[in-house]
Amino acid sequence: MSWCDFIAGWVGGSAGLVCGHPMDTVKVLQQAGGSSSITRVIFDTYKQEGVRGFLKGMFYPVMTAGAINSVFFGIYGVTMAKIQDLPLSTYSSVYLAGCAGGTVQLAIACPVELVKIKLQTQSSGMAKYRGPWHCLSQTAKEQGTRGLFRGIVPHVWRDGHGFGVYMVLYEALLHVSGGRDQAGKTEQFVAGGLAGMLCWLSVLPFDVVKSRMQADDYAKPKYRGMFDCIRKSYKADGLSVFSRGALAMSLRAFPVNGVTFLVYEILLDNCQRFSKEETR
User: Fold this and answer.
1) In whole angstroms, what separates CA 278 from the centre of its chain?
2) Would the CA dihedral through 70, 152, 162, 20 be positive or negative?
3) How many CB atoms are closer than 10 A to CB 53?
4) Helix, strand, coil percentages for the chain (3-state, nearest 5)
5) pLDDT of the chain along its 280 residues, tens only?
6) Which of 52, 125, 147, 264 has the fewest C-beta atoms under 10 angstroms from its C-beta?
7) DSSP label at 196?
8) Is the pTM value of this prediction over 0.90?
9) 205 and 242 Cβ atoms separated by less than 8 Å
10) DSSP string, 25-61
11) Which residues make Cβ contacts (< 8 Å) with residue 54, sequence separation at least 6?
12) What does the alpha-carbon distance between residue 80 and residue 96 come to, in Å, rounded to a whole number?
């Protein structure tokens, strides 16, 4: 794994997450809670907990987002290098490398998402967990490793396939802008933002199921698995339940992914230039 990919992914991922966490909280509350209205969720959250309510669960993802993104971009870069001689089209290679990176990063991302969602969905007056480390340790103690990976099946569908689509869209949008070498910082930001938004909308149903499973009560579980969650969610709220959080996700995805890719590309470019100068 290139140390340039690692550093650029770490900083880019952390910067993007900070930009989008408030809207991520709104999205999760829409998906896992009782209200599907974005304005109602925002109003109720602010009324009950103030601005702090939108920042719940942010610390742990910020601390680990760098590792998650550096693993993704690192695996992506390594996979692209390994398969470059295979008889595949450019976009096929990009898709496979994106799928590989998206799947491997789940080893870190799934427990992180679980802790984040647990903290986001607990009310301040009836908080079960004191913070991310308490939530992580209690879950591991009560449920073991299996508990930390609750919702992994829809998570694989969301991130494994999703990251492949994500990278293909990003490269395609850069191509429309004149190509990677000619694209400026604005084009990189817009390409990253649009790719993230379109990708997230395409995997939204899996995100809804994942959020519901991870927000579920371990003591009295409502869902036995992904298909049980899909069946019960559809029966209770109809087909529209699988598009909950679409607006919040779009409002979050564009700046988050735009910033992530912009910072990643800037740091990667400078890092690689520095590495070449060092080897001369």
Assistant:
1) 35
2) negative
3) 20
4) 80, 0, 20
5) 567 777 777 788 788 888 888 888 898 888 887 667 888 889 988 888 888 888 888 887 877 877 787 788 889 989 999 998 888 898 999 999 999 999 999 999 999 999 999 998 887 677 788 888 999 999 999 999 999 999 999 999 999 999 999 999 988 998 888 777 777 778 888 888 898 889 989 999 999 999 999 999 888 889 999 999 999 999 999 999 999 988 888 888 888 888 887 888 788 888 877 777 666 5
6) 125
7) H
8) no
9) yes
10) HHHHHHHHSS---HHHHHHHHHHHHGGGGGGTT-HHH
11) 21, 22, 25, 26, 45, 46
12) 8
Tokens linked to 220: 């009295």
**Structure token pair of residue 162:** 């999703």
CB 218 within 8 A of CB 142: yes
Q: Which two tokens stand for residue 276?
A: 């070449």
Token readout for 200 is 């997230």
The C-alpha atoms of residue 42 and residue 243 are separated, in whole angstroms, by 18
C-beta of residue 192 within 8 angstroms of C-beta of residue 261: yes
Matching residue, tokens 């991870």: 214
Q: Which residue has 């949008």 as its token pair?
A: 173
Query: What's the one-letter identity of residue 72?
Result: F
The single residue listed with the structure tokens 């799928």 is 99
What single-letter DSSP state applies at residue 224? S
**DSSP-based three-state secondary structure for 160:** helix
Distances (CA, A) of 227 to 3, 67, 195, 212, 223: 40, 31, 28, 12, 9
**Token pair belonging to 166:** 């994500």
HSE (CB half, 13 Å, CA atoms) of 212? Answer: 31
Q: What single string gives the DSSP state of each residue in 158-219?
A: IIIIHHHHHHHHHHHHHHHTT-TTT--HHHHHHHHHHHHHHHHHHTHHHHHHHHHHHHS-SS
